[in-house]
Amino acid sequence: RLSCIRNNVWLACFGVISAGLAVLSSFGLLLFCGVPFVITVANAPFLILGVGVDDMFIMIASWEQSLRRKDKSDVKSLLAETYSEAALSVTITTLTDVLAFFIGTWTAFPSVRSFCLYTGTAFVFCYIYTMTFFGAIIVINHKREQGNRHWLTCMPVGADKDQAEKSCLYNACCIGNCSGQSSQPESEHPMSVFFTKYYGPFLTNKWIKPLVVLLYGAYLGGSIYGCTQIREGIDLRNLANDDSYVIPYYDDNDKYFSAYGPRVMVVVTESVDYWNETVRLGIENCTQDLE
């Protein structure tokens, strides 16, 4: 936002901090409980950050809609309507994520089990902080806006009798701009105008709807085809606990034998008469042909 009052920089910052607190809380709790920490768990914060920021945007968007419909001085009603609209969406996304990762704890791989446990618990904390901590930050930010205070310095913004004698920096932080004139009320956000007046009517046009259906069908077909082409590519070393004997084995194998390429094994799946000399010679000839 260009307005020095309506700028939501601090909301964005505290939305990221909220996700960070969720990571710290979950990691601290599980480490305290003795759950092993493996290298794959280091990827969890990026997942939590993505979901946390998404929840932040949902909360802010619902708050902005509430501001347009209700009395801005009634903070309780504003926050109640915000939660009534945003909480359901945030709850559903969190619930599906938590279920998905907690189901993953049933795997036989200890490292995957630890990753799913850490990530699922972090999603729970992310939900708690979004519903409590971030909601409080929204209210504090709203009170700053109602007090007509600058987004950075929290100084009251307005015309100053002595603005001619003040520096440009003072005017920018305490008045809102370098000119020394009071800030004009902010108009409706351009993004809201675009989706309301242009994108929405375009998407609901009777000629555009069949095109959207066709595009979705093509997307769905491409997704199904892509799923059939997926191949496993995980490093087996990362599936073991840090203190497992498998770790030095893979380290030494990469260090000393990686230049020779992969080992080739031949498995005989049927019953073979190894006592028969002719069969043994046939196996030996097969081995020499492979070599």
Tell me the Rg in angstroms.
Answer: 30 Å
The total count of strands amounts to 0
Give the overall shape, derived from the CA principal axes. elongated
Cα-to-Cα separation, first versus last residue: 70 Å
Question: Largest beta sheet, briefly?
Answer: none
Low-confidence stretches: none
By helix and strand content, what is the structural category?
mainly alpha
Q: What string gives the helices and strands in order?
A: HHHHHHHHH
Strand content: under 5%
In words, what does this structure look like?
The chain has 291 residues and is an all-alpha fold. Among the domains are: 8-177, no CATH class; 196-228. Helix content is 63%, strand content 0%. It contains 9 helices and no strands. It has helices spanning 9-32, 44-69, 75-103, 110-146, 168-174, 190-203, 208-228, 246-257, 277-290. Helix 1 runs antiparallel to helix 4 and helix 3 (75-103) packs antiparallel against helix 4. 18% of the residues are buried. The model has no long low-confidence stretch (mean pLDDT 85).
